[in-house]
Every structure is written in C-alpha cells, then in structure tokens.
Amino acid sequence: MFPIVHARQLSDAVFEMGVHAPAIAKKAKAGQFLMLRIDEDGERIPLTFSDWSAEEGWIRFIFMRVGKTTHKLSNLGVGDSLADVVGPLGVPTHVEDMGRVVVVGGGVGTAVAYPVARAMCAAGAEVTVIVGARNADLVILEDEFRALPLKELIVTTDDGSAGRKDLVTAPLKELCEAGAVDHAMAIGPVIMMKFCAATTREYKVPTVVSLNPIMVDGTGMCGACRCTVDGETKFGCVDGPDFDGHAVDFEELMSRQRVYSDDERLADAEYDRECRCHS
Questions:
Q1: Hey, CA dihedral for 211, 104, 120, 126, is it positive or negative?
Q2: Which of 60, 101, 116, 155 has a 20 to 30 Å separation from 83 between CA atoms?
Q3: pLDDT tens profile 34-53
C-alpha cells in the first residue's frame, strides 16, 4: 500500500496528489511516468511525475478528472492509500547540452513541463517556459515555475484572463523568429504539440514532444500507444514518451487517441450516478 501524504485541488477538475514511495522517489527523473491502481479491483492508469523528493521519500503527480478512475482518485485524500504504484517508467527526458531551450506546457501537461524545466536549468540550459491554458483557473504551478532560474516565463490563456491572450504557438513563433531558440519541447494536448512542432519546423528548431497522453497500460502490451515516428512504429510507453516532434504522424496519433473517449465518458457518468445514489 502507498499512503497518500499530499492532496490538493488545483482547479475544478485538476488535482495534485503525493504518495509515500521512497524507492521510486530515489530513481525518478524528469519526463518519466508511473502506473497506479487505486484498489485491487481497479484499472491501472499511467501518470507522469510532477515532482518528487528522494530525501523525504515522496512522489507527486497531477491529473485531470476525465474518467471513472480519475474521478475515484479525486475523491481520495491524506490518510487514504493506493493499492499499487509502479515506476519510474519510460525513458527520461534528455536535458544535457540544450543551450537556449523553450519548454511549452499546455493544460495538465504543464505538470510534466515543470520537472523538465527544472532539470534543464540544473544542467545549465537557458530556459524559457511558455504555459498555456483555456483560462486563469486552469493555469497551474505558476509559483513553482517562477521559483526556477528561468530566462522568462510566459503565460498565455485563450480568454486573456491570465498573462497574454494568445495560443502558446504565438510566443513560440516570436522566439523562433528572433533566433533565440536552439531546442524546443512541447508537453500537453496532442493537438497543441502538433502545432508547436509545425511552428518550429519552419525555423528548423529541433523539437521534442511527450506522448504521455496516449498511454493506457504503460507496459507496451496493449498497443494503444502505438505511433508512427519517421515511418517506424514506436510505443509511447517503452520507446518514449519523448519523440522527435517533426517526425511524429500526428493525424494517426489523434485518431488513435479518440478510440476510448466514448467509453471513458460513459464509465465516468456511471460512476457519478453510483456516487449520487449512495450519498
């Protein structure tokens, strides 16, 4: 069992949780993910590390309530426990010799962008972070980013309620046009990563995208995270989650991502009805 030692709600549907997992905390690196199971009857879901402390023995992750399992998870708090937490899994993000790098985080992907930006700063890179969200309520970890030795933090929102009213691709393009970027990394919704990669391709800026949003079982067995990269079939969980954004077939990726969306919504609605019946 893995005791929950930290829990807070970041927005209406976004939550942060920490569990005591000293063995995992000792080995976790930026860009890696974990698999968790709430109880013996639950499904396994992959979530990427947002923070950890090897000294104190805890790991943290941020998730959005979108299906039955994340709905159940959001109802837990300090004092509860998770049945299983496995990790770290996946290939760590490359953070060495990045020069001037822009890290773009969109939505819940911002949770992954934070440890990546932190690791790149520690490795000596000049790091600019662009954080994007639909509105101010969905901007997460802004204080944590501001505590890092960044060159700049740019916040964008679709409605202009925080930072500048723009998509993340607008400041990304401006930086590329100014010749101020050696490398870029985009982490967030697949559609956002697609357009970030399209933006940097024009300026020949090497760009990495994190394909954690398409993972299901996290072990390579289910095949749901299959993606085509430079004409070859890759698995997001075991070969990634980081890939060359200019080589990913995003159209295929988005089609594959939609396969389970209806089932996810139905399971969440059924669980919500069960909760209402027992309340």
A1: positive
A2: 116
A3: 999 999 988 889 999 999 99
- Rounded to a whole number, what is the distance in angstroms from the first to the last CA of the chain? 27
Strand-strand pairing, 183-187 and 207-210? parallel
Helix, strand, or coil (residue 198): helix
CB atoms within 10 A of CB 215: 26
Task: Give dist(CA 145, CA 153) in Å, integer.
Answer: 7
Say whether 262 sits in a helix, a strand or coil: helix
Q: Are residues 250 and 181 in the same domain?
A: yes
Q: Hey, is 93 helix, strand or coil?
A: coil
Question: In this structure, what CATH number is given to the domain that contains residue 221?
Answer: 3.40.50.80
Residue 20 within a domain = yes
User: Which pLDDT tens digit goes with each residue over 96-110?
Assistant: 999 999 999 999 999
Q: Which residues of the chain have pLDDT under 70?
A: 213, 217, 257-265, 267-268, 271, 276-279
Give the global pTM. 0.90
Q: Are strands 14-20 and 2-9 parallel, antiparallel or unpaired?
A: antiparallel
Q: Is residue 270 part of a domain?
A: no
Are 164 and 72 within 8 A, CB to CB?
no
Query: Phi/psi at 2 (nearest 5 deg)?
Result: -120, 105
Q: Is the separation of the CB atoms in 6 and 84 below 8 Å?
A: no
